[in-house]
Each structure stands twice: as structure tokens, then as C-alpha cells.
UniProtKB/TrEMBL annotation:
Residues 1-67 form the HMA domain. This is HMA domain-containing protein. It comes from Segetibacter aerophilus. GO terms for molecular function: metal ion binding. InterPro entries: HMA_dom (IPR006121), HMA_dom_sf (IPR036163). It comes from the Bacteria. Gene3D superfamilies: 3.30.70.100. Pfam families: HMA.
Length: 70
């Protein structure tokens, strides 16, 4: 298992609720979380076979932005 972290613009619980169906389908229900308290709104994903670009595309598909964490 590898852990991938990306910066997002997912700001609150309502935003998390909106991305939940897409992320659950892409990475699995228990394999992701968003730290909305962190100023960078970090999405952490645990996955065997997904890469950073696939995670970013899933977030964008849900209507939000994601980018590499610097």
C-alpha cells in the first residue's frame, strides 16, 4: 500500500459529501480522507494501484481542483 497526498479546494463537510461518491468509486470507501482543517485541504489516499494523476482526475471529475502537494 502506498499513500498519496494532494492539495485540494475541498473546504467543508458539504464539499466532502459531494466528492464522496466519486472517490468511493475510484479509490474505495475506507481508502481516503480530506483534512479540511489543514490550510492546504489535503486529500490522503491509500492505494495499491492508483497514482497521483488518477487521484487528481477523480477529484476534478467531482467538480473540485487538486494538485501535487509541494
Amino acid at each position: 500500500m502506498k499513500t498519496i497526498e494532494v492539495k485540494t479546494n475541498i473546504m467543508c463537510g458539504a464539499c466532502v459529501a459531494k466528492v464522496t461518491p466519486t472517490l468511493n468509486k475510484t479509490v474505495g470507501e475506507t481508502n481516503w480522507k480530506v483534512d479540511t482543517v489543514n490550510p492546504k485541504k489535503v486529500l490522503t489516499v491509500t492505494s495499491e494501484n492508483l497514482d497521483e494523476e488518477q487521484i487528481i482526475k477523480a477529484v476534478e471529475k467531482a467538480g473540485y481542483k487538486a494538485e501535487k502537494l509541494s
